[in-house]
Amino acid sequence: xxxxxxxxxxxxxxxxxxxxxxxxxxxxxxxxxxxxxxxxxxxxxxxxxxxxxxxxxxxxxxxxxxxxxxxxxxxxxxxxxxxxxxxxxxxxxxxxxxxxxxxxxxxxxxxxxxxxxxxxxxxxxxxxxxxxxxxxxxxxxxxxxxxxxxxxxxxxxxxxxxxxxxxxxxxxxxxxxxxxxxxxxxxxxxxxxxxxxxxxxxxxxxxxxxxxxxxxxxxxxxxxxxxxxxxxxxxxxxxxxxxxxxxxxxxxxxxxxxxxxxxxxxxxxxxxxxxxxxxxxxxxxxxxxxxxxxxxxxxxxxxxxxxxxxxxxxxxxxxxxxxxxxxxxxxxxx
Length: 334
Ligand code: SAM
Ligand code: SF4
Fold this sequence. Notes:
Blueprint: H1 3-6, E1 22-26, H2 55-67, E2 72-76, H3 86-94, E3 101-106, H4 111-120, E4 125-129, H5 135-142, H6 147-159, E5 164-170, H7 179-189, E6 192-197, H8 205-210, H9 215-225, E7 228-230, E8 240-244, E9 250-254, E10 267-270, E11 275-277, E12 285-287, H10 288-292, H11 298-309, H12 329-332
Parallel strand pairs: 1-2, 1-10, 2-3, 3-4, 4-5, 5-6, 6-9
Antiparallel strand pairs: 7-8, 8-9, 10-11, 11-12
Helix pairs in contact: 2-11, 3-4, 4-6
S-adenosylmethionine (SAM) is lined by residues 31, 37-38, 76-77, 79, 105-107, 129, 167, 169, 196, 198-199, 201, 204, 208, 329-330, 334.
């Protein structure tokens, strides 16, 4: 071992003093839905399977991250559950010493059959995308049926996931008359609700921004009907939470555009082809797959990760340069 490796820091600190302790891991760029703001209809430019990181490669990269102080991983996509054996991968990751929080983002349409296995594999928390409770509207937004998603959601509840967070992208003229109904739904089922501002991503950029809604205004409007008190949420990430008075319902507002949260960003993303993206809204990246396949040692891998974190940009520029991001959300791992 050379002296460089002996001095490896156990933590990843970027040039702006932010500690990186969270990885969002995309296990596929494919999806069985076609949310118009995420993946354009007819989109076919998916990664070749031989470019996908294998489970062995994923485990190796995540192990290196945990040895550098990363304690949290979220499995995402595309739709992660379209890739086979995600419960097996989950189990392998939860066995890693140092990983103390494994979560999953899913559209829930394939969750009914897999919820128990994922729970048993150690996935503790799930975030589920649900923009509407109206079947016709759901079809318009995603091109698919709502019922399998509701079934998947109930299967997650039955399996014991806690908390279950509903991610609702707030869109002007699409679902802005449904916020109260979604709050009532989450109250009824003991789900946490997170409203998300649309971000201009990839080819869907203008579609997404055409329906942009400032969540600061939405919050003000909702507070006329519901009494909000400042709240916190463990593992809350970028969402700013309130609690609805006299209930356990927490509502998060994810406001990348109206009030960005880059100064506290603690995360990096790995895409299905093993590209490490340092920011959702910038192109700074390190391609890990060729390095992994060239026979580097575990110590060399850790050095590469430490150096990569030095490339993390200060902030995204969704507001000032809305056409800058050419990747789709489903490619980077949302
Ligand atoms: N398929 C899974 C799902 O839908 O939860 C995981 C991947 S998806 C890309 C992750 C999250 O990104 C979803 O909650 C989705 O609503 C959100 N998302 C996708 N495109 C977006 C955009 N342009 N603006 C804001 N959120 C977006
Ligand atoms: Fe698929 Fe999720 Fe993107 Fe919708 S938001 S198209 S469910 S990856």
